[in-house]
Design a protein that fits this description.
Elements: H1 21-33, H2 36-43, H3 47-61, E1 66-69, E2 72-75, H4 77-105, E3 109-113, H5 115-132, E4 138-142, E5 155-159, E6 169-181, H6 187-190, E7 191-192, E8 199-200, E9 206-209, H7 215-223, E10 233-236, H8 239-247, E11 252-256, H9 257-266, E12 276-286, H10 293-305
Parallel strand pairs: 3-4, 3-5, 9-10, 9-11
Antiparallel strand pairs: 1-2, 5-12, 6-11, 6-12, 7-8
Helix pairs in contact: 1-2, 1-3, 1-4, 2-3, 5-9
């Protein structure tokens, strides 16, 4: 019986067909040591197995790769030429394998993001990053305020409402724009829309959050006397709760645009007075400037979606 790789008797061999990988490994070891016994030991094979593999390779190529003498074997000119090619090829394979294994073992990049921004803006858009960079391992964690890159995080997204060390690299992402938001069905209850421009009613229920207590005072200061005052108030522990209360129709919350833009687009919230910049902004913070790799991929993607 003739194997498929042998072809028909008398037929020409395909000149582009590669020799077997095992034969090339045996040849490379023998060429490096110029000793079949040492080559066999390095490959955990017998002397006869290496000798047969080299002989099969020579038969396949149709020329001698070694000059066999009583005291040893020596590469021929053809053997030296093949050795250079095989060493280069195996070197490239080893380098690629090493890089792939390192990439597979590489720890995920840890990105810390303020909780409400993470929940309402970053996570809904995260499938876009994964689709663009399916092999980039990034772990998202919630965190706000001061941070440390020695504490297990690699990058942080923060609003500049506190001071961070001068050594930290800060890449601006977007400016903060805020405005009062409420359920669309409660606009007439909380806003006077009869005039040339809508205004907040004095008795509108204002929803506050302990994590940003100056949200309402700052917005009213930016609006001046037209903002009104004197309505009922309700305080929530976290920003997310105040926004959910606005969705439920309990009152009016100060909504940063990036935290409510999806709800505005879907009609869950309304912003009768629009949004104004409050002078603050969000930044991607890192110990060094993101120049390459996953950090650069993440920064470029963030800038494309803001």
């Amino acid at each position: 019986m003739i194997a498929d790789t042998d072809g028909e008797p008398g037929s020409r061999k395909n000149p582009s067909r590669l020799p077997s990988l095992m034969a090339l490994r045996c040849f490379a070891a023998a060429a490096r040591t110029q000793n079949f016994s040492q080559a066999a030991g390095s490959l955990h094979l017998t002397h006869g197995a290496v000798s047969r593999a080299v002989r099969m390779l020579e038969d396949d190529l149709g020329l001698a790769l070694f000059e066999r003498r009583n005291r040893g074997v020596f590469l021929t000119e053809a053997g030296r030429r093949l050795q250079r090619a095989v060493d280069e090829g195996f070197g490239l394979i080893e380098e690629a394998t090493r890089e792939l294994r390192h990439s597979a073992r590489e720890a995920p990049l840890v990105l810390s993001c303020e909780p409400t921004l993470l929940m309402r803006w970053l996570i809904p858009r995260w499938p876009g990053f994964q689709a663009r960079h399916p092999d980039a391992a990034v772990h998202l964690v919630a965190g706000g305020g001061p941070f440390s890159f020695d504490g297990g995080i690699d990058l942080a997204i923060r609003r500049n409402d506190f001071d961070w060390p001068a050594s930290v690299q800060a890449q601006p992402l977007f400016e903060e724009k805020v405005g009062p938001v409420c359920s669309p069905g409660r606009v007439d209850a909380f806003f006077d829309t009869t005039g040339a421009s809508p205004s907040l009613r004095r008795d509108a229920v204002r929803l506050h959050t302990r994590t940003r207590p100056q949200a309402w005072p700052s917005w009213m200061q930016m609006q001046g006397a037209s903002a009104g005052a004197g309505g009922k108030e309700q305080v929530f522990e976290h920003f997310y709760f105040s926004l959910q209360a606005a969705v439920a129709g309990l009152g009016v919350a100060i909504g940063p645009w990036h935290l409510v833009c999806d709800d505005l687009a879907s009609g869950v919230l309304a912003a009768p007075l629009g949004f104004v910049a409050d002078g603050s902004g969000y930044f991607l913070l890192s110990p060094q400037k993101p120049a390459a790799g996953r950090q650069r991929q993440l920064l470029d993607w963030l800038l494309s979606v803001v």
